[in-house]
Amino acid sequence: MIMRPQPGTELSIGSPSWMKRLSSIWNVENIKVVRRVIVSVIGATVLLIGVALLVLPSPAFIVIPIGLAILATEYAWARRWLKKVRRMASNVVSNRGRERPIPEDSRV
Question: What is the pTM of this model?
Answer without folding.
Answer: 0.62
